[in-house]
C-alpha cells in the first residue's frame, strides 16, 4: 500500500461521453468507487448533492455531516473522504479544470462563486427545499443528455452546469457579500491567489500588501470585512493546510516538510504547528494516517 494519500485524475474514472466530465447518480458512483471513500485527492473539480443517506465526510481535515439537502463543492488538490452510516443517494459531477475554459470568455469565471474558493466553510451548503427542487431538475436534465444514444450536446451540458452554480450561489450570503463590491472582491481574490503562489516564501501581510499596492491596514480591513479573519490568519491557515497535506504522506520526514515549507528548522516548524493546532505534527500524522490505514484495510 502506498504510504501517501492517492491522487486521482478524471481519466481514472468512467467518462460521461466526454473525457473531461463525469455525471452520475451518487449511489451507483459510491458503490463503483469504494476506494474513494478513504482519504484521497482529485486533480479535478468535484460536487455532490445528497438527497438521502447519513454519515460524515472530511474536506481538508474539517468534518461535515452527510444529509439530504446538502451540496458540497471541491476544487483540485483538496483532501477528501466519506464515512456513511446509511446508504447515500443523490448526484455527483466531476469536471476537469479545462472543461469550461473553451466555453467561457472569462477564464476566472468560477472564482465568482464563493463555493469554489477552497475555503471549506463556504463549500458545504444546506439548500432550501425550493432550490433543491430546481437543481434536482438540472441534474436530471444533465443525466438525460448523457443517456441518449445521440452524441451529447456538450454546450447544453455546460450551460446546465453554469445554471446549477448560479442557482446554488443565490443561497450563499458570502457570495452576495463578495459581489456587492466588485473592486474589493477582485482585490481579495488577488490576495488569495498571491497566497497560493507564495505562501512558502511570503508570510507577512505587509509583503502581500506591497504586491497589491495597498497598505497593510487596508488589506487587514478587507479580510476582516469579507472573511471575518485577519490577513495574517489567512496566510497562516494556508501554511498549516499544506503542512497537514504533507504530513499524511508517510514518505516525508517532519524535517523534510519543514524544509519544503521554508521554515528555518524542524524545531520552529513543530512549535508553529503546535501553537495553532494544539498538537504536534507527529501526533497529527499518527491520528490521521492511522484512520486512513484502518479504513483501507476494511
TrEMBL record:
The keyword Transcription applies. Keywords: DNA-binding, Transcription, Transcription regulation. Pfam families: AraC_binding, HTH_18. Residues 189-287 form the HTH araC/xylS-type domain. One of its GO terms (molecular function) is sequence-specific DNA binding. PANTHER family: ARAC-FAMILY TRANSCRIPTIONAL REGULATOR, TRANSCRIPTIONAL REGULATORY PROTEIN. This is Helix-turn-helix domain-containing protein. It comes from Pedobacter cryotolerans.
Amino acid at each position: 500500500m502506498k504510504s501517501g494519500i492517492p491522487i486521482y485524475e478524471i481519466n481514472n474514472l468512467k467518462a460521461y461521453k466526454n473525457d473531461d466530465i463525469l455525471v452520475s447518480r451518487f449511489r451507483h458512483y459510491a458503490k463503483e468507487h469504494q476506494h474513494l471513500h478513504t482519504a484521497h485527492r482529485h486533480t479535478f473539480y468535484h460536487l455532490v448533492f445528497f438527497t438521502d443517506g447519513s454519515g460524515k465526510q472530511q474536506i481538508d481535515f474539517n468534518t461535515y455531516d452527510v444529509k439530504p439537502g446538502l451540496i458540497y463543492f471541491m476544487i483540485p488538490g483538496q483532501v477528501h473522504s466519506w464515512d456513511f452510516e446509511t446508504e447515500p443517494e443523490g448526484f455527483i459531477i466531476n469536471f476537469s479544470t479545462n472543461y469550461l475554459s473553451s466555453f467561457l470568455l472569462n477564464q476566472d469565471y468560477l472564482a465568482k462563486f464563493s463555493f469554489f474558493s477552497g475555503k471549506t466553510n463556504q463549500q458545504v451548503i444546506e439548500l432550501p427545499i425550493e432550490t433543491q427542487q430546481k437543481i434536482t431538475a438540472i441534474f436530471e436534465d444533465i443525466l438525460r443528455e448523457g443517456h441518449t444514444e445521440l452524441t451529447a450536446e456538450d454546450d447544453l451540458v455546460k450551460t446546465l452546469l453554469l445554471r446549477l452554480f448560479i442557482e446554488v450561489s443565490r443561497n450563499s450570503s458570502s457570495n452576495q457579500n463578495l459581489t456587492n463590491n466588485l473592486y474589493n472582491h477582485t482585490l481579495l481574490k488577488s490576495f488569495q491567489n498571491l497566497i497560493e503562489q507564495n505562501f512558502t516564501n511570503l508570510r507577512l501581510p505587509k509583503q502581500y500588501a506591497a504586491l497589491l499596492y495597498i497598505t497593510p491596514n487596508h488589506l487587514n480591513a478587507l479580510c476582516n470585512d469579507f472573511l471575518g479573519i485577519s490577513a495574517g490568519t489567512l496566510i497562516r491557515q494556508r501554511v498549516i493546510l499544506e503542512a497537514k497535506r504533507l504530513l499524511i504522506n508517510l514518505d516525508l520526514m517532519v524535517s523534510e516538510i519543514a524544509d519544503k515549507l521554508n521554515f528555518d528548522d524542524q524545531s520552529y516548524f513543530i512549535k508553529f504547528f503546535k501553537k495553532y493546532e494544539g498538537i504536534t505534527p507527529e501526533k497529527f500524522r499518527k491520528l490521521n494516517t492511522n484512520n486512513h490505514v484502518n479504513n483501507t484495510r476494511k
